[in-house]
Every structure is written in C-alpha cells, then in structure tokens.
Amino acid sequence: MPKCSFSGKEIPKGKGMMYVKKDGTVYYFYDSKCRNNFLNLKREGRRQKWTPAYREFQALQTRRAEKSAASESAAKPAKK
Fold first, then answer.
1. Is 52 exposed, middle or buried (0-12, 13-18, 19+ CB in 10 A)?
2. Which of 27, 51, 56, 63 has the CB geometry, 3.0–4.6 Å to 7, for a possible disulfide?
3. What proportions of the chain, in percent to the nearest 5, are helix, strand and coil?
4. Domains observed in the chain
C-alpha cells in the first residue's frame, strides 16, 4: 500500500488519489485536504500538527535533543 506524500498515512486500496506531474514524478494523496495543502498551499506535511509525519518528526527531534543533552552533561565535570 502506498503512503500519502503529504501526511504519511497508509492509503488503503480503493481510497486516495494519484497525481502525476509532467516530469513523471508521482504523488499519492489520502484525501483532498492533503492534496490541496501540498499542491496549492505549498505546505510541508511534517510541519502540520494533524499529520502522522509531524508526530514522527517531533519524536525524532526530541530523541536528538535528549541525546545531545546527555552527551553534554557527560562531557562536563560535576562542580562541587
């Protein structure tokens, strides 16, 4: 099953739409809301709070922040 090019949702069979650009690039969209946000409004799915792509992106950012904070605290000696 393809994933939505905007939101990252799995598209079940018989649902969604496929958009093909003149250069042959294929985009899959779950619904018209995703299609309009991507094509007409030029938005990124990972910046829209209602998309699964946003939640994945935020989880990745928090893991990176925790990892860098842990490495910084390990590098600095404790002050007494």
1. middle
2. 51
3. 45, 10, 40
4. 17-74 (2.30.170.20)
Q: CA torsion angle for 71, 72, 74, 78 (degrees, to 10)?
A: -170
Question: Is the overall model pTM greater than 0.70, yes or no?
Answer: yes
Rg (CA), the chain: 19
Tell me the HSE value of 47 on the side-chain side, using a 13 A CA sphere: 6
Cα gap 37→29, rounded to integer Å: 10
User: 32-72: per-residue pLDDT in tens?
Assistant: 999 999 999 999 998 999 999 999 999 999 999 998 888 87
SS3 72: helix
Cα distance from N-terminal residue to C-terminal residue, the chain: 58
Cα separation, 25 vs 7, in Å, equals 17
